[in-house]
DNA sequence: TATATTTCTTCACAATTGTGAAGTAGTTTC
DNA sequence: GAAACTACTTCACAATTGTGAAGAAATATA
């Protein structure tokens, strides 16, 4: 009995119940994978090979713009799915890189196997709809935050909601994620201490 | 034969093919609805009653913050679905208002009927996944734009991608949507003319 | 452990955007 | 068509954030 799968199931159960048959399919087709700090598990320009579930560890999602700057679009820790989902599903090359910020434990499934579990299982489609809706709500909130909050307010909010990110992720990554210049964020952080 | 349904079907066909049976279900359960400029078709605090498809016209989605300011989260014209989808599906009160900025032609379906068409039809679930994915991509891009572009650049981009919004929507709505102070946007627009 | 590399902080200054008020223009309503 | 209302522009000034450089601190590598 692999603990990692229990973490996956508990995460899924936040949205839908998983019948035994779907659990077994997960155990059969999701493969454990250990990645080390700095490792890029999906690269820009390539079709994403896996749908990744972070069991533990921190990851980031970034792309390089015309000026060669890395733009970080997402930072997350487990438990959580973390995939360039659209490109993965449509088998199209992604412009994003998925990289481990710390050592990570993953469970991952190949693209073809997702079609198999969709056919043989029961709840996958329902879960997909649920998690897409959930993700959509989160993204809507991020848009609102950008449109209505100052840089300082966005940082404070992140600090409250995801203190583990502040504690574990380099400032320059957080700055890019929040759309703030690293120097400015350093100053903001310094002024907050007072 | 109602032209409005052809507009709906053509819009849906951008993502999935609609078999005859699903077309008939749409014709049976989607009802035409005309709304006039300024009309609020879903109100904050209430469970959204309809899933709305804009055939023609411009609508906005907004909520009121603690200070009583209207924050506009979305502006769109037809053809397009326009609903507080999460709250509609989960039958929970939404904090958002859907309002017509111009006279609008809609096709709308009641919540209970969505369950019926889901059961009797074929492609609804697949379409839902597709359009959620599409919406997710659009929202990701909006986040990136906020994080990487200046106020002026965001306005210019909107102008390029959705010139009809610039032409048809009051400046103060556009300002709120872009997260810019109306006075600032007026100045930005003025300086762009030179 | 020493060295090299990367990240973070700090600074002065610049650029952008926000604020609130006042006036102008435009629109709606009766 | 006049009055009332709403939206837009403009202004001076304030606040926030960006920029680029230089040094300090932290981390990785040999």
Helices, strands, pairings?
Two copies of one chain form a homodimer.
Chain A: H1 3-13, H2 20-29, E1 31-35, E2 40-42, E3 50-56, E4 58-64, E5 70-77, E6 80-81, H3 85-90, E7 97-100, E8 104-110, H4 111-120, H5 124-148, H6 151-161, H7 163-168, H8 171-178, H9 182-193
Antiparallel strand pairs in A: 1-8, 2-7, 3-6, 3-8, 4-5, 4-7
Helix pairs in contact in A: 2-4
The first copy, chain A, binds a DNA duplex (30 and 30 nucleotides) through residues 150-152, 170-172, 180-184, 186-188, 190.
Architecture overview:
Chain A is of the alpha+beta class and 194 residues long. Chain A has a domain at 3-123: Jelly Rolls (Sandwich), CATH 2.60.120.10. Chain A is 51% helix and 22% strand. Chain A contains nine helices and eight strands. Chain A has helices at 3-13, 20-29, 85-90, 111-120, 124-148, 151-161, 163-168, 171-178, 182-193, and strands at residues 31-35, 40-42, 50-56, 58-64, 70-77, 80-81, 97-100, 104-110. Chain A has a four-stranded antiparallel beta sheet. Chain A is globular. The first copy, chain A, starts with a helix and ends with a helix. Chain A binds chain B through residues 65, 71, 73, 85-86, 89, 125, 128-129, 132-133, 135-137, 139-140, 142-144, 146-148, 176-179, and chain B through 65, 71, 73, 85-86, 89, 125, 128-129, 132-133, 135-137, 139-140, 142-144, 146-148, 176-179. The structure holds a DNA duplex (30 and 30 nucleotides).
């Amino acid at each position: 009995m692999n603990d990692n799968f229990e973490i996956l199931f508990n995460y899924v159960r936040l949205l839908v119940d998983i019948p035994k048959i779907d659990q077994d399919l997960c155990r059969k087709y999701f493969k454990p994978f250990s990645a080390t700090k700095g490792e890029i598990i999906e690269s820009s320009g390539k079709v994403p090979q896996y749908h990744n579930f972070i069991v533990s560890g921190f990851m980031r999602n970034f792309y390089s713009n015309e000026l060669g700057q890395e733009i970080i679009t997402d930072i997350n820790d487990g438990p959580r799915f973390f995939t360039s989902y659209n490109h993965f599903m449509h088998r199209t090359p992604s412009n994003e890189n998925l990289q481990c910020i710390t050592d990570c434990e993953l469970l991952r499934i190949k693209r073809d196997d997702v079609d198999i579990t969709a056919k043989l299982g029961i709840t996958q489609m329902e879960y997909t709809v649920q998690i897409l809706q959930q993700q959509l709500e989160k993204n809507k909130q991020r848009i609102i935050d950008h449109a209505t909050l100052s840089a300082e307010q966005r940082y404070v909010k992140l600090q409250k909601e995801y203190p583990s990110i502040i504690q574990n992720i380099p400032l320059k990554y957080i700055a890019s994620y929040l759309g703030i210049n690293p120097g400015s964020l350093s100053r903001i952080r310094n002024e907050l201490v007072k």
